[in-house]
Design brief:
- With about 270 residues, the chain is an alpha/beta fold.
- It has a single domain, classed as P-loop containing nucleotide triphosphate hydrolases (Rossmann fold, 3-Layer(aba) Sandwich).
- Helices cover about 40% and strands about 15% of the residues.
- It has helices at about 15-30, 45-50, 60-65, 70-75, 90-100, 105-115, 130-140, 155-170, 190-205, 215-220, 235-255; strands at about 5, 35-40, 75, 85, 120-125, 145-150, 175-185, 210-215.
- The protein has an 8-stranded mixed beta sheet, with helices on both faces.
- Helix 1 packs across helix 11 (about 235-255).
- The two termini are about 30 Å apart.
- The mean pLDDT is about 95.
- It binds adenosine-5'-diphosphate and magnesium ion (MG).
- Magnesium ion (MG) binds near residues 16, 17, 40 and 44.
- InterPro entries: AAA_dom, DNA_Partitioning_ATPase, P-loop_NTPase.
């Protein structure tokens, strides 16, 4: 069975989608089988994985609203190496349609249970809001994975997110854990970054990942070529950072002795 992570933070622009593409592709380079679920109507994770959101026969919308099963809508990405349940603007309609459906919070969970035996990890890229889509993601997941930019307002947004997680735990998913906090667009020369970083350490202890993601222009450029940074610029700081993150991620989830070597074709 796979472990399911919801990549979530109600703040936009903190690196959720960048992480939803680059952590999975780095895990694939380390020979893990991964599914990425795009649950944001903007379809950025879809486009960034090299799949055109305007050309989808079936998408997360069809799966959530019961028009097809999960397997039918999953596509293989060409270069990124993971499988993708893609999304586009149709998902906006699902937000509303779900409200009148039976077991509306559990629809993604049910859909993913059909395919989860095929993967080591499943990542769900959440929209930057708390709506029925995010509730479905947090119900389907065992853990949240939270990218955070170390800036002044970061902690304020985090309080809201922790409140949401507590509510989900109470109502639909008592098992839900915080699977990790990731510092993104990290700049150690900035005093504020260090202050926020210290506070995160104090608050979250070992849930805070040691690996950090620096600001790196290659990470911002890669999506326009429809590839993860690993396939765009192998030696960039962004590539190195996401590979280091994947190594730490595997050791945390599979134990210190797990194999984190990189497959030959990615070296
Ligand atoms: P979210 O999904 O949380 O809204 P994104 O991953 O889409 O955030 O990131 C927001 C913007 O910042 C995007 O244009 C992305 O390319 C850019 N970005 C994300 N992470 C980095 C980084 N580490 N360095 C430089 N640019 C980044
Ligand atoms: Mg996003």
């Amino acid at each position: 069975m796979s472990q399911i992570f919801a990549i979530t933070n109600q703040k936009g622009g903190v690196g959720k989608t960048t992480t939803a593409i680059n952590l999975p592709s780095s895990l694939v380079a380390m020979k893990r089988k991964v599914l990425v679920v795009d649950l944001d109507p903007q379809g950025n994770a879809t486009m960034g994985s090299g799949v055109d959101k305007n050309d989808l026969m079936l998408s997360a919308y069809d799966v959530l609203t019961g028009k097809c099963n999960c397997q039918e809508a999953i596509v293989k990405t060409e270069q990124a190496g993971f499988d993708l349940l893609p999304a586009n603007g149709d998902l906006t309609a699902a937000e509303v349609e779900l409200l009148n459906m039976p077991s509306k919070e559990h629809r993604l969970q049910k859909a993913l249970s059909e395919v989860s035996s095929q993967y080591d990890y499943i990542f769900i890229d959440c929209p930057p809001s708390l709506n029925m889509l995010t509730v479905n993601a947090l119900t389907a997941a065992q853990s949240t994975f939270i990218p955070m930019q170390c800036e002044y307002y970061a902690l304020e947004g985090l309080a809201a997110l922790l409140e949401t997680i507590a509510q989900i735990q109470q109502v639909v998913n008592p098992q839900l854990q915080i699977g990790g906090i990731l510092r993104t667009m990290y700049d150690p020369r900035n005093t504020l970054t260090n202050d926020v970083s210290d506070q995160l350490k104090a608050h979250f202890g070992d849930k805070l990942y040691a690996a950090v993601i620096p600001r790196n222009v290659r990470l911002a450029e890669a999506p326009s070529y429809g590839v993860p940074v690993l396939h765009y610029d192998k030696t960039s700081r962004g590539t190195v950072a996401y590979l280091a993150l994947a190594g730490e991620f595997i050791r945390r989830n599979e134990g210190d002795k797990a194999d984190v070597s990189i497959a030959k074709e990615h070296q």
